[in-house]
Amino acid sequence: MRLDRIVLVRAGALVTYFGLLALVVAGIALLAPPQHVPQALVLLAFGLPLLLPLHGLLHGRPRAHVWCALLALFYFTYGVYHAAAPGPGRTLGWVQAGLATLLFLSCALYARWRHRELEGSDSAPSAADSGSEAPTRDRPGDSE
Predict the structure, then answer these.
(1) Count of beta carbons in the 10 Å neighbourhood of residue 34
(2) Average pLDDT, whole number, for the chain?
(3) Which of 62, 76, 91, 140 has a CA positioned 20 to 30 A from the CA of residue 25?
(4) How far is CA 97 from the centre of its chain?
């Protein structure tokens, strides 16, 4: 069961990541090109940060998912800004905010669950696992 939910949130993270990347590039290049700034500069400023965690996301590294979740907060803020501003980009802003929210949640859940799974598989069997009782230490303040 645990493996299934990890695979599911990782798939969700990848789908929302590529969806957000496509939306950002399409929004800048085709749907709402910038008026006063070179288009290539805006594509670099908004598209390049999304490419930074790509290698780690494709390889399923929890740390890359954490960084991607933090990066999604920026795109959420940018989407809400466009959704609240008057003009034709309101719908794109809401879609971007929604994708960024889903990306944040799926990346955070994947990183948490995968880290727990890796942490659990690295631990060696202890005396408690073998059935024998390990001696307990008295804590300061315990009275007999």
Answers:
(1) 11
(2) 85
(3) 62
(4) 14
Residue spans per domain, the chain: 2-120
Which candidate, 19, 23, 39, places its Cα nearest to that of 102?
A: 19
Which residues have CB under 8 Å from 69's CB, separation 6+? 103, 104, 107, 108, 111
C-alpha span between 8 and 132 (Å, rounded):
38
The closest alpha carbon to 103, from 60, 63, 67, belongs to: 67
Query: Which single residue is written with the structure tokens 């290049």?
Result: 29
Q: CA dihedral defined by 93, 97, 13, 4, rounded to 10 degrees?
A: -130
Closest CA to 31 of 93, 85, 109: 93
Q: State phi, psi for 94 to the nearest 5 degrees.
A: -65, -40
Residue 29's pLDDT band (boundaries 50, 70, 90)?
confident
**Whole-angstrom Cα distance, residue 26 to residue 22?**
6
Q: For residues 31 and 47, give the distance between their C-alpha atoms in angstroms, rounded to a whole number.
A: 15
pLDDT tens-digit map of 85-127:
888 788 999 999 999 999 999 999 999 999 998 888 765 555 4
